[in-house]
Amino acid sequence: MTVPVFAPLTLEPPSLLLADVVAGYDHGVVLNGVSARLQAGQVVALMGPNGSGKSTLLKVILGLLEPLGGRVEVLGSAPTRLDRRRHQIGYVPQLRDVDRAFPATVFDLAMMGRVGRLGLFRRPGARDREIVARALEQVGLRALADRPFGALSGGQQQRAFMARALAQEPALLVLDEPAAGVDEEHRERTGRLLSDLRAQGVPMLIATHDIEELEPLIFDEHWHLVKGRLSVDVVDVVPNADRHESPAVAHSHRQSVGLLGLDRRSPSGT
Fold first, then answer.
1. SS3 204
2. Tens digits of per-residue pLDDT, 99-118?
């Protein structure tokens, strides 16, 4: 009798794993016991009032702030151990955190997204320029490639940073309020672009105050941060009959709840 041999099951690790994460500053704890996971291909909205800890959580994920406890894994590794693989995380900051007079052209700013893949001493080649041109096309800035970054409007500057992130060919996108302070036309363009990226399977964590600002983008989960406590709402998505339309949201249900943290803020508002 021949006994069948089954290959071991290999499960893809989550793009982001948070397990009982504690983080804060000298004056106190901001995040206490935060747990969640973002699976490959998922799109998650990170929500919460000002001072809830969203900025602190993004700093932890990006490796800018060492957690006081718990476990953080980004693309299978601790953020501080990604080394050169940091380029796999495409980050789009809020404009309030950016020097809006940055002395570079739109093309040069987007090309900075290639540095992680090239290294410091290798010059970009034809393929790199093609990737940057395509990223600028995606965000609607190809015609402004030679314009100084400081001459752009707020919405255009936000799109330039989006192009930089896309030029990285990221395995994970982290966006901090991508629709904040920009006009309706830019919000709609951003929502359509992110919806296209979702269709391509790019995992995304998007800090936002209003998920409707990014329509037609549909989120798989809503992460709610309040005073260091994280709760996760799973969104049930029902496809429309028309395959060319965005999926319709049926409802959401609460999946898990983190631990209650302390209402302590960083000098930057956490």
1. strand
2. 777 789 999 999 999 887 77
pLDDT single digits (tens) 192-204: 999 999 999 999 9
Mean pLDDT of 54-66: 93
- DSSP-H helix ranges across 88-153: 106-111, 115-118, 126-138
Over 69-122, what HEC string results? Answer: EEEEEECCECHHHCHHHHHHEEEECCHHHCCCCCCCEHHHHHHHHHHHHHCCCC
d(CA 223, CA 217): 16
pTM of the model: 0.81
CA distance 134 to 164: 11
Task: Measure the CA–CA gap between 199 and 136, rounded to whole angstroms.
Answer: 19
Contact partners, residue 104, CB within 8 Å, separation at least 6: 112, 148, 149
